[in-house]
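User: As part of a screening pipeline, I want to sanity-check one entry by hand. Below is the sequence and the SMILES for 0MY. Please return the complex as structure tokens so I can compare it with the automated output.
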Amino acid sequence: DPSVFHKRYLKKMRDLGEGHFGKVTLYLYDPSNDGTGERVAVKALKQENGHVPEGWMKEIEILKSLYHSNIVKYKGCCTELGGQVVQLIMEYLPLGSLREYLPKRKLCVPQCLMFAQQICQGMEYLHSKRYVHRDLAARNVLVENDSLVKIGDFGLTKYIPEGEIYYRVREDGDSPVFWYAIECLKENKFSFPTDIWSFGVTLYEILTRCDHRQSPPTKFFEMMETPHGQMTMLILIKLLEKRLRLPCPKECPHEVKTLMEQCWDEDPAKRPTFGFLIEKFEAIRRTYD
Ligand SMILES: Nc1n[nH]c2ccc(-c3ccc(NS(=O)(=O)c4cccc(Cl)c4)cc3)cc12
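Assistant: Here is the complex for your manual check:
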């Protein structure tokens, strides 16, 4: 069974990323032990306290069920201690996430918009299966090559049952608050339109080429005129209620600025869908031909 990976053949190479609950690491899977194996990305939970959390198995089942060119491929699992520890094996994308890739490559606007459109295509597919991502950000978008990106992490993804319109969470760890829609901050309510808000922030990150001086946290702290660390959720909510938003990146086309503002509409019902955004990006990119 090609989806079973044996721990003894996994050779650790380097870290790829770290979240609140997990770590992603690059391994060489080398059963013939001659260095000719394949490189894989392995996601593991940080603290393994003997039992496998239900949410972790759910995350693995979700990725296993997703088949789309703009979503990182599930390859299998590696179990240890009789199934008490389970690690998720994914395809390895050597160019890493947009956070590493964009600052190094001065991409032109049409190429940025092509990446943005592909993220919308992956997200439209995710929403079509009634999943809300809840953590869409440039750090979670991976680069296969100059013309292909994939959504690379589904750690906070939740299923929205038929007939429901949002998923309410209890306060969780270090939430990515600067990517959260106003209703997430105020009522912990997550829905398809809250992913659209996070996409708008991700689009801003792409157009600023993930320049850390213009990152969402940096810019929001500047807007709140408070030194680091004093920002409370309340100050951010007040700022968003006064309709303050991230600034328009330089060289951002006017139509794209409009799309970003629509993604950040305080009324979730007024935000576009990913299907609508795909058509808009398609049309805007054609004006560059
Ligand atoms: N280069 C790669 N090839 N395959 C991958 C799969 C996932 C990832 C990946 C995906 C997401 C991140 N973002 S992250 O913010 O580091 C993160 C967020 C939530 C949970 C974790 Cl464990 C890590 C970092 C790395 C990278 C690759």
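Points to compare against the pipeline: Residues 277 and 283 are 10 Å apart (CA to CA). Residues 16-19, 22-24, 41, 43, 72, 90-93, 96-97, 139-140, 142, 152-153, 155 surround 0MY (CB under 6 Å).
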